[in-house]
Amino acid sequence: MGDYGRALxxxxxxxxxxxxxxxxxxxxxxxxxxxxxxxGVQDHPYQKRFLDAWSLIATLLARTxxxxxxxxxxxxxxxxxxxxxxxxxxxxxxxxxxxxxxxGAGAFWTAITAMGGPARTPGQAAAALIxxxxxxxxxxxxxxxxxxxxxxYRVHGAQPGPEPAHPIGLWLGVLxxxxxxEVGRSADGWVPSSGYVPPNELADKHARIDRAAIEGGRDPAxxxxxxxVFGTITGGASRGFLHGPVRQWIxxxxxxxxEYGMDTFVFGTDGDxxxxxxxxxxxxxxxxRSLVTDERS
Length: 297
Prior knowledge:
globular; nine-stranded parallel sheet; oxidoreductase activity, acting on paired donors, with incorporation or reduction of molecular oxygen; two-stranded antiparallel ribbon; TIM Barrel; alpha/beta
């Protein structure tokens, strides 16, 4: 493991709180104005306090000009893959190519089934995600008709389209060995969160992705590594990983690039704090870019 040499990207992790719509829109405008690369939006349709992720993503795209927006990550069991592909491609065209697709196999199964979704074992959820990737790729291909006869999804003769405005990144938010292998075989990126995969666990998961990529004839460096990171930029002493002053953030994110293989950081703040996002964008991001450039050269 180590630095894959990819271009760096930075973004913000947005909470789709139905009780704080104005804050969500303001955070998106701050991210766009300060030229961050990404906004990630949680997708938990069963959470009564949350806005529908795709409705919010469409609104954020309409209120911004530069930033790319993606579900972080879409709940596959409640979003049929052919329709999900069409929604992502449609918004990509409407926004001038500013949509990416984070996709998860599912979690919180009691809540999913309460909304009419399927109850899946871990093995079934993995198999369904692999089938969904085939369908989504085929729906974006512009050539058809699409035919995938899977155990969980059967698409027989669907007409693909619309085609996306740009090659949408298909990023998987997965943790298990089988689906990490699928990242290496067929995905464009991997989206773990620091709360579930701390830095000391990244190497093993990168290795699983890389082995599968190499076995499939792919270069592991072609796979984007997106890290949802949660913490606080403070004016005082360090209180642990990503809880401390600007200098600590610069050093730790630089280390995550050069030593731990990550290249994209989506920053989640307590309460979606726009002041934290401004400091991140204005003080942390340019310094990390500069340090990484210097080390690479």
